[in-house]
Write a structure and sequence with these properties.
The structure is a single chain. This protein has 145 residues and is of the alpha+beta class. The chain has two domains: 33 residues; 107 residues, Lipocalin. The protein is 27% helix and 35% strand. It has three helices and nine strands, in the order ααββββββαβββ. Strands 1, 2, 3, 4, 5, 6, 7, 8 and 9 form a nine-stranded antiparallel sheet that branches. The longest helix is centred in the C-terminal third of the chain and has 16 residues. The chain is globular and about 45 Å long. 18% of the residues are buried.
Length: 145
């Protein structure tokens, strides 16, 4: 059997997953996926589970601390990255009340961070944080002043 039918089957199998399509496109273009990098610095939430950006959601990584805004409340806690493996400690957050839809998105963002297991970096510089269950958080570097 030639390799062409196998490649076609692989392409169809991957067609439903945006992240895997991006990796496949990189591989086919001869560009290896970018998996090395660091989260040190300031980031904006560009996408949460395919739902788009979260207004006012930001994260800042400095040393072993992460601070940020989850859309309504501010949070802080510990984090660690070893290559593509990432973990967050317990996050402390303020308890302001916002409209229920904002609070629901904030809860999903914080739950994803607490469960995060991996991070990789795209050729464009975005950070992709993944958690079990297919949850994906895309971070984009904040503009430098």
């Amino acid at each position: 059997m030639s390799r062409a039918p196998l490649l076609f089957i692989a392409l169809i199998a991957l067609a439903g997953c945006r992240e895997q399509r991006q990796q496949l496109g990189q591989a086919l273009s001869g560009q290896p996926p970018v998996i090395a990098g660091t989260l040190a610095g300031d980031w904006h939430v560009a996408d949460l589970n395919g739902g788009g950006a979260i207004a006012r959601a930001q994260l800042g990584f400095e040393g072993e601390r992460v601070v940020g805004t989850a859309g309504c409340n501010r949070f802080t806690g510990g984090w660690r990255q070893e290559g593509p493996t990432i973990s967050f400690g317990t996050l402390a957050l303020t308890r302001m009340a916002c409209p229920p839809p904002v609070m629901e998105v904030e809860a999903r963002l914080l739950a994803l961070l607490q469960a995060a297991t991996n991070v990789r970096f795209t050729p464009g510089g975005d950070a992709i944080i993944t958690a079990p269950g297919g949850r994906i958080l895309t971070l984009r570097r904040a503009a430098q002043p």
